[in-house]
Design a protein that fits this description.
Elements: H1 5-21, H2 46-62, H3 72-87, E1 91-99, E2 102-111, E3 115-125, H4 135-155, E4 158-159, E5 161-168, H5 176-184, H6 187-192, E6 193-199, E7 210-212, H7 216-229, E8 234-236, H8 245-250, E9 255-259, H9 268-274, H10 298-315, E10 318-319, E11 326-329, E12 333-335, E13 343-349, E14 360-368, E15 374-379, E16 385-389, E17 399-405, E18 414-422, E19 429-437
Parallel strand pairs: 3-5, 3-6, 6-9, 7-8
Antiparallel strand pairs: 1-2, 2-5, 4-10, 7-9, 11-19, 12-19, 13-18, 14-17, 14-19, 15-16, 15-18
The protein binds D-tryptophan, calcium ion and zinc ion (2 copies).
The site of one zinc ion has 4 residues, from loops.
Length: about 450
Amino acid sequence: MSLSVSRRLAAATAIAVAGLLAATSPAALAAPTAVTAAPTPPDIPLANVKAHLAQFQTIATNNGGNRAHGRAGYKASIDYVKAKLDAAGFTTSLQTFTSSGATGYNLIADWPGGDPNSVLMSGSHLDSVTSGPGINDNGSGSAAVLEAALAVSRAGLQPTKHLRFGWWGAEELGLVGSKYYVNSLPAAEKAKISGYLNFDMIGSPNPGYFVYDDDPTIEQTFKNYYAGLGIPTEIETEGDGRSDHAPFKSAGIPVGGLFSGADYTKTAAQAQKWGGTSGQAFDRCYHSSCDTTANINDTALDRNADAIAYAIWNLGAATPVPPGPSFENTADVNIPDSPGAAVTSPITVSGVAGNAPATTKVDVNIVHTYRGDLVIDLIAPDGTAYRLKNSSSDSADNLVTSYTVNASSEVANGVWKLQVKDVAAQDVGYINSWKITF
Ligand code: DTR
Ligand code: CA
Ligand code: ZN
Ligand code: ZN
């Protein structure tokens, strides 16, 4: 919005008042209605999954060409995934273990809510072998599970079950991280896990569509998804002990998962039904240096990522809750270039009973010529700051995105502020609008 400063200020004031008046009042919301069937799961945007793969590739390139256990590339991968989940409102924890003389890391992320005695867990190993970046094995599973988790956050899902996600270390050394996690769980905690879904290699360049033949309900869920696409699947038989579902299965936890194939050769019959090249390995770069971002079949990755969302929504018996009351400020607020002071855009919240939820949603719309310059915080009425975004090297323009904040310790009513500071010189912009939803 390009207005002269005085008109802009007047317009901004008018809009701010109008914006508040137009805010959705709680009374205007229909009471949440329970639904029996699981709602339609979202499409997982392939571009988002591939953006995570690009990050994993960059991490490997910048760290000796791999993301293997005990190497800098693995810890950088963990840090990347954790930051995304923290920003999306997950409760994350890092579990450390030692293997082959090096510290390993499992990342566990819990989505607040759901029945704590019925946990649906999805996971994938995040480590690569030392010989390459491990983009299909297993950046593909890690990126798809991450994006499915972020989709849960974007939807503000409140499933019947409690959703948990895991990214395992040192799988390539013998399922070390997942074994450590399962073996560290008290029996009572193991008993709460109603199912574990494993995704290890789901974007193979010459893909097959394999479904683990373990728990019948989980298996049927995946088969239903693919039947809906008219794609035949095969039972994954050779993988029983070969990935991170094995420790869960050994502990008596129902397991399932998807697989697009590794070093085995695609038969003529399989090529007939799935396309691709018969007589060639499903993944010719398995455990090789060529397992890069070029070693991915987009269609398989997209379908399998969507299958993960389908399984979580259906097995999690997700019950959608319509968004709560929301309040918006559409006044433009200039963001002075560094080293200028931080600016704030206020929203006065009223009529909301109790505290903000653990899934308080903040939508921001900022016009800027280098969004990596920006540090963004949500300031609660009592002055508590919740970091939404740190500065980065992301040189793209504009920032139109959502954050989910666990603001459950804050009283909802009062003046909330979006605080933005430009911490690097030569690029400018303004807050176009922002919205808070309870
Ligand atoms: N062991 C996995 C790859 C792998 C090979 N066969 C299967 C079957 C099911 C899941 C995974 C796999 C790895 O190298 O990470
Ligand atoms: Ca998709
Ligand atoms: Zn592997
Ligand atoms: Zn793997």
